[in-house]
Specification:
Blueprint: H1 3-27, H2 31-52, H3 58-81
Length: 82
């Protein structure tokens, strides 16, 4: 077995592992519910900014939040196609 084949198998195994973990996470709730919870968490975080003081990396937090929302939107699209 050459190194490229091993690398591909290793990547495939890793992706299958990620897929299983994501499937387990998503099986506990719907994408819509996850999205709602994310909004609740982010809203609470934003409201707490007045008490905690401003966060210097707020833009990073926002974009991470946005990426999570997009992830759940994509998951919902995939589910609808099943």
């Amino acid at each position: 077995m050459n190194t490229e084949t091993r690398a591909n198998e290793s990547l495939d195994s890793k992706l299958i592992g990620y897929g299983r973990e994501v499937a387990a996470l998503l099986s506990s709730s719907s994408a819509e519910s996850w999205t709602s919870e994310l909004w609740t968490m982010f809203s609470g975080f934003m409201l707490a900014q007045n008490e905690m003081g401003r966060t210097t990396n707020l833009s990073n937090t926002y974009f991470s939040f946005k990426e999570l929302l997009e992830f759940f939107e994509k998951v919902e699209e995939i589910r609808k196609c099943e």
